[in-house]
Write a structure and sequence with these properties.
This protein has 305 residues and is α/β, with parallel strands linked by helices. 34% of the residues lie in helices and 29% in strands.
Length: 305
C-alpha cells in the first residue's frame, strides 16, 4: 500500500548556517491520525514548509501518496490539504467566496464548488457567516474557515499545524468531532500541536522531532505503556491526616482532602485504594497530575537534549 506521506533523508540548512533538519525519515500510512510533536524550533514547521513547497529542502525525498514533490508537485498538491498556523486568506473576501474561489484553483466546476462550499459551511458552523468578510470573524471561526478551505478539493492527506491555537474549549471539542469524522471517512491527518492532551485524544501514532532529528516514532499506546512513573491526585471524602502513608508507595497528603501518589511501572494502583479503604479513607475521584503524554514527551526531550 502506498504511504500517505513518505519522507527519506530530509535535510534543511538555511543560508545563515542554521541546520533545521538532519536527515529525517518518516512514513505515515493511509488513514492514520498522526501527531508530529516537538518543542519550538525543533523542525516541525520546516518539515511542513518543505512538504507544501514553501521551503526549499537541502536534500532528501518527499512523496505524497506516491507522488514525488520534485517531479510533479501539481499532482502531489491535489492530494494535499494544509492548514498553517497563520491565517493566509484575503481578509476582505467573504467567507463563501474564499471557499468557492479555492475550489476553482483546483479546476472544480462552479456548481460542484458551490455544493462543497455549502457542505463545509454547514459542517463547520459557518453558514451564518457566509456573507461576512473574513476579517470580521473570531479567531476560532477563522480556524474553521482555514480547515474548510484546505478540504474543499477533497485531499487524501490533511496537515494541521496548531489548528486549535487560540480556540475556546467548546469550539475545540466540536473541531475534534469533525476531525475524527473525516479521518474515519478515510482522510489521513497529520497534526502538530502544543496541547499534548489533544494528541493523546485524537492520534494513534506519533513522532517527536528535536534538534532536527526524529527521536521516536511509535504508536501512542506503546509510548504510554513505557511510561515508568505516573503521578495521580486522589480526591478524598472527609478530612485526611497529614501522617497518612501506604507502605511501598510514594504518597503525600497535599491538603485536607487531596492525596498525591506516584505509581512506578509494575505497581498496582488498586493496592493503594485497598490500603486507603482499610484506613477508612474514601476516594471520590482521581486524575493525573499531568497529561501522560506530556510526561513522556518531557522525558524524551531530556534524554535527547
Amino acid at each position: 500500500m502506498t504511504a500517505a506521506l513518505k519522507i527519506e533523508g530530509l535535510e534543511k540548512t538555511y543560508d545563515n548556517g542554521f541546520v533545521a533538519l538532519q536527515g529525517i525519515d518518516l512514513t505515515v500510512e493511509p488513514g492514520d491520525f498522526f501527531a508530529l510533536l516537538g518543542p519550538n524550533g525543533a523542525g516541525k514547521s520546516t518539515t511542513i514548509g518543505i512538504i507544501s513547497s514553501l521551503v526549499a529542502k537541502s536534500a532528501g525525498k518527499v512523496c505524497v501518496h506516491g507522488v514525488d514533490i520534485d517531479r510533479n508537485f501539481p499532482l502531489a498538491k491535489t492530494h494535499l490539504g494544509i492548514v498553517p498556523q497563520e491565517f493566509n486568506f484575503n481578509v476582505f473576501e467573504k467567507v463563501e467566496d474564499i471557499l468557492t474561489n479555492q475550489a476553482g484553483y483546483y479546476g472544480i466546476p462552479r456548481i460542484e464548488a458551490l455544493r462543497r462550499t455549502e457542505h463545509f459551511l454547514d459542517r463547520l458552523g459557518l453558514t451564518e457567516k457566509r456573507d461576512t468578510r473574513a476579517r470580521m470573524l473570531s479567531g476560532g471561526m477563522k480556524r474553521r474557515l482555514m480547515i474548510a478551505r484546505a478540504l474543499i478539493h477533497s485531499p487524501k492527506l490533511l496537515i494541521l499545524d496548531e489548528p486549535t491555537a487560540g480556540v475556546d474549549i467548546e469550539m475545540r471539542r466540536s473541531m475534534y468531532d469533525f476531525l475524527r469524522e473525516i479521518n474515519a471517512s478515510g482522510t489521513t491527518i497529520i497534526l502538530t500541536t502544543h496541547y499534548l492532551e489533544e494528541a493523546e485524544a485524537l492520534c494513534r501514532n506519533m513522532a517527536i522531532i528535536n534538534h532536527g532529528k526524529i527521536v521516536t516514532n511509535r504508536s501512542i499506546k506503546d509510548l504510554l505503556r513505557d511510561l515508568h512513573k505516573e503521578v495521580f491526585l486522589l480526591d478524598c471524602a472527609g478530612q485526611l491526616s497529614s501522617e497518612l502513608t501506604v507502605p511501598g508507595f510514594d504518597l503525600e497528603v497535599l491538603d485536607d482532602h487531596t492525596v498525591q501518589v506516584a505509581i512506578e511501572k509494575g505497581q498496582n494502583l488498586a493496592e493503594v485504594f485497598a490500603a486507603l479503604h482499610e484506613k477508612q479513607v474514601s476516594v471520590v475521584s482521581m486524575r493525573n497530575e499531568a497529561n501522560r503524554l506530556e510526561q513522556m514527551f518531557v522525558n524524551l526531550l531530556e534524554q535527547t537534549a
